[in-house]
Task: structure prediction
Amino acid sequence: MKNTLRKIVFITALSSSICFAQNTSILEDFKPSTFNQPGQEYPMVNSQGYARFKIVAPAADSVRVSLGLGGKGGTKLKKADDGTWMGTTDGPMDEGFHYYNVNIDGGKFNDPNALNFYGSTRWESGIEIPAHDRDFYALKNVPHGHVQQVLFPSPSTNTSRRAFVYTPPGYEKNTKAKYPVLYLQHGWGEDETAWMNQGHANLIMDNLIAEGKIKPFIVVNTYGMTNEVKWGKMKDFSIVPFQTVLIDELIPYVDANFRTIAKQSHRAMAGLSMGGMETKTITLNKPDVFAYYGLLSGGTYAPEEIKDKSKVKMIFLSAGSKERPERILDATTKLKEGGFNAISYVSDKTGHEFLTWRRSLLAMAPLLFK
Result:
């Protein structure tokens, strides 16, 4: 990487695939992404889902933008006479949230004009393509719950570990009320910040409660220790350390420090992607702990895998329409035939991404703790 990188100033807007010829069909109604740093104009997105970026890097020899898990590959950008590197996507991106980074002369950088989110085992830049149904996770003038960071003792790992706990509106005032709990896990490459930052889980909960669609419950996020294995080597992952942290350390801490209904019948576990794999394994290993199961782009259950049907109140399976959803639909049919209360959900026109999981939480939350 060249010393001239010290002179580079970034102003960025992003895309999954860039074209340099002007496309006259693109509407010029671009607006800054909602995940930009305060006061920054780029990256920009338009009403069609196109994204536009501009990087000022006059001393650079090559610039590419990389999207998605790990930021592999990428699209080369074209340098203009004034030293800027410019481009607009050659097609609309999927609605919702996307990770990205910028590669300049072989070095990987975050875009200083965009907010950072933990994904792909590092802090990555993020861009939001406005979804047509984004109202359900919008920040509205409704009563809001609180998201607090807690540090709980973990003798098994010889340290204190972090969790984020969402308590619903009214929790602090109605001191006699007790609440069910959903333990909600992130995917590989992410951590306990993902569901509240990328997923807007707290806003989804606030809006559902304000609309009277769910009874309030607590949501807990903690690090699933998923990043202890490299991508592509999931078979080497052992559930035992995280299962110990969750079952023997975190749940007792939450029950002791929050007003929970500390019963299996009022406890749920769900997770996206690898967090779904963790959910499946732990719920099968510990059937006396959770009564509600949710796998969000995270696999399926087979009826024969569940030894005691009476302990399971509901199984929720979801995926994006671009993720072979027939697998969860078939699995749900078999579970129903086996006598389980199983429900499937398919997110329209999305893949393995946060809009799928935001919509999945929206669909799953009203089904919990019935």
In short: The chain has two domains: 3-130, 136-367. The domain at 136-367 is CATH 3.40.50.1820 (Rossmann fold). The mean pLDDT is 90. The first strand starts at residue 18 and ends at 19.
